[in-house]
Every structure is written in C-alpha cells, then in structure tokens.
Amino acid sequence: MRRLKLFFLVSILLVSFFANAYDGVGHRIIADIAYRNLTAKAKKQCDKTLGKRGIIYAATWADEVRSDKKYEYSYPWHYQNLKDSMSISQLEYLFKYPTSEGEHLFYALQTLTHRLKANANDAEALKFLVHFVADLHQPMHLGRLVDLGANKIKVQWFGKNTNLHAVWDGLITESQRMSYSEYSNYLLDYFAPSKAIFKKETLLDAIYKTYLLRNEVYNFGVPDTNNYGYIYLFAKKNDDRLYSAGIQLAKLLNEIYK
Questions:
Q1: Which CATH number characterizes residue 249's domain?
Q2: How far apart are CA 64 and CA 243, in angstroms?
Q3: I want to staple 143 with a disulfide (CB 3.0 to 4.6 A). Which of 86, 149, 162, 176 is the partner?
Q4: Nearest to 33 by CA among 189, 157, 158
C-alpha cells in the first residue's frame, strides 16, 4: 500500500511539473536564433540529421515524448533543482560533475553532448540537446525542489488561474503577441549591438545569469496585483534569456560539429 501511495504521489508531482515546460513558441525562438548562428558545417550536419531547419521544428519533441514510457528516463532531465544563494563556483562544481540522481539537467547536457560527439547523426540526442539548452535558460527550470520549480506557486494571470512556472514558460513571451519567427527576428535585431558580449560568455556564465534571475523572480513574489507591471519589469529580462539560449545552443552545436 505504501508503494502504491508513493507511486501516485510521484505521478502527481511529475504531471504537475511537466504540465508547464518551456512552451513551443519559446523553444522555437531559441532554436531559430541558434540555427541562424550556426557555422556552415554545423548547419549542414543539423539539416542532414533532422531535415532542413529541423532543429526548429523538433525543438518541442522532448516535451511531446514525455507521454511515451520509452522515454520515462528523460523526465527529470527537464529541470535542475538548485538551492538559494549559490556562488558561481558552487554551481560550477555541479555543472562539471553532475550525477544522474541529482544534477538531472546538467547530467543530460553532458550525456547528450558526448553522444553527439560520438555519433554526429544521433537524431534523438540532437533533439534532446536543442530542447534542454533552452530549458537551462528558463529561470524556473533552475528552481526550488520544495515548490517544484514554482509550479506550486499559484498565480492569477489576467483573471485566469495558473502558476509562476507557467508565467515564465511562455505567458510573458506570449504577451508580446508575436510568432516565433517574428520574435526571433526582433531579438536578433535588438541584441545585435551586444552580440559579441553574449558570444564571449560560457554556457556556465549564461546558466549563472539565469540562476540570478531565478533568485530575483522568487524574491519579487507573486505578480497578482499588476500583471502589466510584471511584464514591464521582466519582459526584457525574459528576452535576454531567450537570446542567450539561442547563442549558447549555436556555440555548442558549432563546437560539436566543428
């Protein structure tokens, strides 16, 4: 009976978490930015593996297969529970020495990178990697265990019941009312003057920036009273993470397929 209760509890927690994974528009924005920053060699290999512009169209695949028992092992890969007030050196240790039992998202990143370096045509690994580099830049995917990455923090968003994780998964992005291609064009133009700065950052630098934003989001609290004010405060920071994710994904794929 205890095992049965535990099974149902775990199932409920997983459903709660995965009901809100970085939404389709966000993932496609990131993949589109990455695609446009690939080297000719990396772009050729990505197109060979997934079809023309395939990394964009397959950017949500890792979410779509979560209902397939074949991919149950990948469920924890979508998130990385982190403690508050971590230094970059503490984060670096977890990032460099991940375990399958603890640092799930970091472990997935390392594992999938090794798979692609061993087999450039590993379509499954490529689709997972495209997705998880994006998840690393969504602040609530680096959230607290106690609230399941803010899934348990209830929010009223323009009169509808949701949670803080969902706000960051896509509701802020959707508030801009652009298609993924319009949004990626906007970000490429807006951040063009600072592109060199983003490219100099390591993936660890980018993840730590996301972690700092995660802390800021938690410290701000629930955005119930003024959703427009919340968008005004955080929309540009959300844009920053979307663009950074695209640049970091391109850098990683360029390195793998050099």
A1: 1.10.575.10
A2: 23
A3: 149
A4: 189
Question: DSSP letter at 53?
Answer: T
pLDDT at 22: 52
Whole-prediction pTM: 0.91
pLDDT at res. 226 = 84
State the total domains in the chain.
1
Which amino acid, residue 163?
N
Mean pLDDT throughout 67-78? 93
> What are the C-alpha distances in Å from 67 to residues 11, 23, 61?
12, 16, 11
- pLDDT, residue 123, reads 99
Cα(136)–Cα(134) distance, rounded to whole angstroms? 5
Report whether pLDDT(179) > 70. yes
| The two structure tokens encoding residue 209 | 């920036």
Pairing of strands 154-157, 160-163: antiparallel
* In the predicted structure, residue 19 carries a pLDDT above the cut 60: no
